[in-house]
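Good morning,

Attaching, inline, the backbone tokens for the sequence recovery test we're adding to the shared suite. The designed sequence is right after.
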């Protein structure tokens, strides 16, 4: 990348999103962080990234379930940075339960944050990417965008939908030097994953240790959690000129899970 790029990474105050933001800042990109959490900790992270890497790091508390918040976040980012070159749709929540016990409000929230938010962010950034003749959109779709697991109907539906949108938008902008791809991680030991361990244990009637060993890592032939820096490195590569012909793809980073 010949000049500093500007990126928005949703859901980036922890976990995968933060790993990607770290990789971007380390490569000299200006980054807009987004997500919930302790405000003092978020500010420490923002300042650390900015001072360590000599880039601009902004923070937006936009609620990804609210289109108005999303529009405001993108508008503020453009005003502060001048343009948006890279969008990473990573924000996500989870709930684990059999479908006949799945709360309606949880379904609505997961679809809104895990899928609809990516529609709204993409719609907001694409006009500028088209006008400048360059852009990268990266959607975090999960291995659950490719295969299913029990008790995660909303999450699996949202991630499958994310792959469909990835392919569609990639085709729409294929001639405009804009690529759209999905990264499909296996299990990463993020706060989101840690929180679902007790619910999964309850739903399956097994211990939390068994959830980690048999449900999570049991399906990953490497028997290891995927690391956030691995995902950051892949996201950074997708932003490079070397990845200009990679578009409309779903790239598994899952320890071999979906090869089975």
């Amino acid at each position: 990348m010949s000049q500093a790029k500007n990126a928005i990474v949703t859901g980036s105050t922890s976990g995968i999103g933060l790993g990607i933001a770290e990789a971007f800042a380390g490569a000299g990109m200006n980054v807009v962080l987004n997500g919930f959490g302790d405000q003092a900790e978020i500010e420490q992270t923002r300042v650390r990234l900015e001072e360590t890497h000599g880039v601009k790091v902004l923070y937006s508390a936009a609620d990804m379930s609210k289109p108005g918040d999303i529009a405001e976040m993108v508008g503020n980012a453009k005003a502060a940075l001048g343009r948006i070159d890279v969008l990473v749709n990573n924000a996500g929540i989870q709930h684990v339960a059999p479908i006949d016990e799945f709360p309606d409000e949880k379904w609505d929230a997961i679809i809104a944050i895990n899928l609809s938010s990516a529609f709204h962010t993409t719609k907001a950034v694409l006009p500028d990417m088209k006008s400048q003749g360059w852009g990268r959109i990266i959607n975090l779709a999960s291995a659950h965008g490719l295969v299913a697991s029990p008790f995660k109907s909303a999450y699996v539906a949202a991630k499958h939908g994310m792959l469909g949108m990835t392919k569609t938008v990639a085709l729409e902008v294929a001639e405009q030097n804009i690529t759209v791809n999905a990264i499909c991680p296996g299990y990463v030991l993020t706060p989101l994953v840690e929180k679902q361990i007790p619910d999964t244990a309850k739903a399956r009637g097994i211990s939390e240790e068994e959830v980690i060993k048999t449900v999570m890592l049991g399906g990953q032939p490497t028997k290891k959690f995927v690391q956030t820096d691995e995902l950051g490195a892949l996201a950074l590569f997708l932003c490079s000129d070397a990845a200009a012909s990679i578009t409309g793809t779903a790239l598994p980073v899952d320890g071999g899970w979906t090869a089975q």
